[in-house]
Every structure is written in C-alpha cells, then in structure tokens.
Specification:
- By secondary structure, the chain is α/β, with parallel strands linked by helices.
- The protein has five helices and eleven strands, in the order αααββββββββββαβα.
- Strands 1, 2, 3, 6, 7, 8, 9, 10 and 11 form a nine-stranded mixed β-sheet that branches. A two-stranded parallel sheet has the order 4-5.
C-alpha cells in the first residue's frame, strides 16, 4: 500500500494536521532479501570489460531516464517492474564511485497491484513511472540509524480493521517525492499537484502482494536502505516496468 520532529510542539502540530486525512494517506500505499531478476545482480554493474557494459550508466535504464537523474546524485534505488500490469518487481541499490555505478544489493519487491502508469491517478492501484528524490522517512518503529530526517509516530500504524498481514506495512517508510512537500514527514497530507494525481507513494514494508501504488520490501531491505541512504548523496528512486525504464 503506496501510498513529527524534534520538539513536542512540532509533533503535536503535525499530528493535528494529519489526523483527518490519515486513512486517505495510508490507503494510497498498500501492501525476502537478496533476490534474482535484477540487471547484473552479481555486482558487475560498476565494472568495464569485455562484456561491453558501460559502468557510467545504471543497468536497465535508458538514456531518457538517465537524463532525469540529478548530476550530483550518488545513490539510485532502481525499481524494475516485471511488466506493465504486474505487481512484481525487483529493487536494486546502486552507488556511484569515481563516476561508475556499482551494484550494492537487490531484493524482491511489490509495486501497485495493477502495475505501472506514466499518468498515475488516485485510486488506480498503479505505481507512478519516473525519477523521484528521496528526502524523508519515518514509521511506527524508532529510527534504525538513518541519515534521512526520520519521524517516529504511532499515526503511521495501519488501521487494525485492515487484514492482519498489512498491520506492519508502515513500521518503516521512505517517502517517494511524488506529489508531496519535501522536508516534511511522509504522512503530511498536502498534495501540491492536486488530489487527483494521488500521493503518499512510499517505500515500505511488504505484506506479500501488490500495493495501491507504493513499493514494498522486506523489513531487512527497508532497514538496509534506511541505514545506507545519505541525503548528502542526493538519493533518488528510478521506478517503472522494464520497458518504460529502458525506453525512457
């Protein structure tokens, strides 16, 4: 299912503002470690050699998408969807060293239950295709050691009238900067481009099937990403089905 800070007054303010829209925000989200299916899961992505691969390009990402990655970005979370209408995907973390992209780790994942869309709309159960910054994190559980601004709050918890497999979806979340205000907690309800374009698109914990637009992974994967992502390296997520990623 796809979807405050240091002093008590700020926490209270965010809680009041978010209370009336919490369920809408959570509904936009939804719903295993080291997996297969990622381009170059053996770590060859950052090497040059006889295979002809260009280490200065993220594997499986075409020129149009590559141009959208900020020049100063040193971390890419790539989400490779299995197909336009598939809920299955693979997440790969790449880091840039001396201009070359290196595979760090990959995990099986889920995306929107209906697949992917280049024109995501609220309620379509598709994940948006594109390149988005990653600036804020949070969840029910305490900060696992991330450098990203992190908001721990019980308001992230999935309603207990949801099916039990979904209860821990938002123990950890990383906000995908799609139709949201950067620099605020992930569950901030504001949607600058309007409600129709949806929002509350997150990386979050997996419940074993497709989401309402978010990307979900195991707890171990989320903890690893939270500890690895560094705001000074301007991390981004590049996400979509493989055909869209390659074609741009």
């Amino acid at each position: 299912m796809g979807g405050v800070r240091s002093d008590r007054a700020r926490c209270t303010a965010w809680a009041v503002m978010a209370a009336g829209t919490l369920l809408a925000a959570l509904a936009a989200c939804g719903s295993s470690d080291s997996g297969s299916g990622a381009p170059e899961p053996d770590g060859r992505a950052g090497r040059s050699g006889a295979d002809g691969r260009d280490p200065h390009r993220v594997p499986g990402i075409g020129p149009a998408m590559l141009r959208r990655i900020p020049a100063g970005s040193g971390q890419v979370v790539a989400v490779y969807g299995d197909g336009r209408n598939s809920a299955d995907s693979t997440v790969v973390l790449y880091t840039r060293h001396d201009g070359a992209w290196r595979h760090v780790r990959d995990w099986p994942a889920h995306n929107g239950g209906n697949g992917w869309s280049r024109n995501h709309r609220s309620g379509d159960r598709r994940s948006p295709v594109g390149v988005f910054t990653l600036t804020d994190a949070g969840g029910v559980l305490g900060d696992p050691g991330t450098e990203l601004p992190y908001t721990q709050d019980r308001s992230f918890a999935a309603p207990r009238w949801w099916a039990k497999p979904y209860w821990h979806d938002f123990d950890y979340v990383i906000a995908i900067d799609y139709n949201r205000v950067r620099g605020v907690p992930p569950n901030d309800p504001r949607r600058p481009e309007g409600e129709g374009k949806g929002g509350s698109i997150w990386l979050h914990m997996d419940h074993g099937s497709g989401t309402s637009g978010c990307v979900s992974m195991s707890r171990q994967a989320m903890e690893f990403l939270l500890r690895e992502l560094d705001p000074d390296r301007r991390p981004v997520v590049v996400m979509g089905d493989r055909a869209d990623l390659t074609g741009g």
